[in-house]
Amino acid sequence: MHVVIAGGGRVGAQTAAHLVDDGHSATVIESHEPTAAGVPDSDLIEVVIGDAVSPDTLQKVSMERADVFAALTGDTNANVAACYIAQTGSQSIRTVMRIGSDDEREYGDHEAIDAVVFPEAVGAENATERILQP
Hints:
Elements: E1 2-6, H1 10-21, E2 25-30, H2 33-36, E3 45-49, H3 55-60, E4 68-71, H4 76-89, E5 94-98, E6 115-117, H5 119-132
C-alpha cells in the first residue's frame, strides 16, 4: 500500500515510519524544511517540500499510485481542505484526517473524509492502560 501523508511533524513522521515497518511506502508532504528533515530516512519514504493544500504540490506527488491520503497536520482546517483537494484528484482514494479535539469528530461525516484520527485521545487511552496495568 502507498500512503500520501500531509504533514511531516511528529504524527506524520511516526506514521510514515510505522507504515514502512509494516512493509508499505509513503510520500510525506511538509512545507517547513527543518520539520521535513525529521522524517525518517528510508528508501520507502519520499519527502516533498510544499503545501498539501496546493493543487500544484499534489501534482508533484504520485497521487495516482496512492491508496490512502492522510492529512495529519496540526491544523484541522488545512486537513479538511487537503482531503477535499485529494478527493478531487482521485475519487477512489481513501482519506484519513487528523482532528485536534473531540468536538471535531463530526468531520468524519463529510463526504471527502473517510475516517478521522485524534492522536491525543489515542495517547491518553494508551497511557491509561499502562497506568492501570498491575
